Fold this protein.
Amino acid sequence: MNEYILYITKKGDRWDTLAYMFYNNCFMQKPLINANKYIQLTPVFNEGTEILIPVPENTDTKDENLPIWKTYVD
């Protein structure tokens, strides 16, 4: 994962909800936490926190319901 998306947290966002939102897997929190070591681990983010979301290298899916960064193919 070498590319990142900047995400601004909303009220109620948590590591697991972001993992589910971006990776469809609530257990994929580790890449998010590793990319944001400067952020204190808390149960719920403050609204407006800037989070770097690592973009997985394998994004060869064509599902139109996915975010655009998940459908990008070189």
Notes: The chain has a mean pLDDT of 85. The longest strand covers residues 3-8. Residues 15-23 form the longest helix (9 residues).
